[in-house]
Amino acid sequence: MVTMVKLKYVDELSGGRKRFRRRYPKDAAQVLGEEFFQVPMKARLGAALVVEQEALLAEFDKIVTKAKRKAAGQGTLSPLEHWREAVKEAEAMKAAISGVHDEDEAQTILAEDLHKRGADPVLVKAVMQPDAEAPPVTMLDAKEMYRKERMGGATGRNQKNRLDRVCRRVEEALGPLHTLPLVEFKREHGRKLRDFMLAQRKSDGSLLSPLSVRRELDMVRAMVSLAIVEFDLKGKAHNPFDGLDLPKNDIPPDNEWERRDPLPKEVILEMRKRIRGNLREPVLGLIWRLLEGTGCRGAEIVGLRVEDVHVDAPNPHIWVRWHEERRVKTKVSIRAVPLVGDALVAAKDALWLAKGEKMLFPRYAYEGGPDAVSQSLMKHLRKITKNKRHVVYSLRHNMKDLLVSAGVPERDEHRILGHSLGGVGDRVYGGGEARLKAATDAMKAAIALAP
């Protein structure tokens, strides 16, 4: 008795011929413009049919992966990535061929078959010339390397949007990223991009500020520098954005405290009433109270774990530190921040709501969570003030003003806000409990002056 096994996605055509046919996922189908992946098969039965089916399954997965990546907005593969993937795919396909005399015969058979199917020409070349020179590293490779190495695990919507926005400017000024080999960059490319950025206008018709241009150029410079190191291009490529600055008269002082205003007393009081009302998401009120009472950045509060909150310690505090769900901005941002007054009450309430959870605010424990919180809080704030310089981040300015008004030493002010300390002694000497006690006393003095 012969047992017949039906292989998944393999159907039978006339004359005993076999066909591999599998539906693409919806998002991949929209990119590919086709509903099905279907290929006539050479084998008709036995082990050869199984081997061919497995190879087609692998090919299907590769096509879908590329299509989904494009659908997710990560763009197409760079020429270099495309070539490297084609070489890997060609090696796997050749390894699956049996019954041939040597590798040359396998290459020829596979190349002819791929050509008849209308396969990717790069894949055909990878089959016939696997040792051919790889395409040059381009700005598209630099962008992807920067995203992985510098933004990995911290790619919230704002950061991703900023990277995409900067790269769009590069394309508008210099051309598509995949057509910009790093080894061909010259100083004129740097000047051309700088001048293009300085001439750009925002949605309100005003020119892009010199500070914004400088920040965006810094990102481009970092992308190219990282790619030169990671792709071993030292001595072959140079960074045309190194040392490239704006005309001196175009650079105003870079002072974040002049770009936003502290919230006025009446706005603070109205927001307190509003966030203690019937909010759809009560945790938003707790987050606002912690932001107001600690001076922390939004992501530092939203990314807290339950284990980072110490309300029963001699000096109650939260720990702002690195973990997989939240990566802090800089090394000096890792710190203990005292909990005093209403912030301590809010922290206790948050712990009660988060019983059994790992994250203090599980509702927003996802990539983009801090952005969602900021947007929600801004909607409430805009009901009270239309001043564009009044934002959620203004609460850090309020805390700084309170610390200054309370006569808090600059050392303790910087420790509370997570700013760089000046002298080496301030950074490395003194026990942790002593520093926390000093910061707690400073915070109590500041909070006593709050409205």
The CATH topology assignment of the largest domain is hpI Integrase, Chain A
CATH class of the largest domain: Mainly Alpha
State the end-to-end distance. 89 Å
Average pLDDT number: 83
Poorly predicted parts? 328-332, 423-430
Q: What structural class do the secondary elements suggest?
A: mainly alpha
Domain Tyr recombinase: 258-441
Organism: Ruegeria sp. PrR005
Keywords: DNA recombination
Protein name: Tyrosine-type recombinase/integrase
Overview of the molecule:
The chain has helices spanning 26-32, 46-71, 79-95, 103-117, 121-128, 139-150, 157-174, 187-198, 210-230, 256-259, 265-275, 282-294, 298-302, 342-353, 369-382, 394-405, 410-417, 424-428, 432-447; strands at residues 10-12, 18-23, 36-41, 309-310, 317-320, 335-338. The chain is mostly helical and 451 residues long. The protein has three domains: 10-128, no CATH class; 139-252; 260-447, hpI Integrase, Chain A (Orthogonal Bundle). A three-stranded antiparallel beta sheet has the order 1-2-3, with helices on one face. The protein has a three-stranded antiparallel beta sheet with strand order 4-5-6. Mean pLDDT is 83; it is low at 328-332 and 423-430.
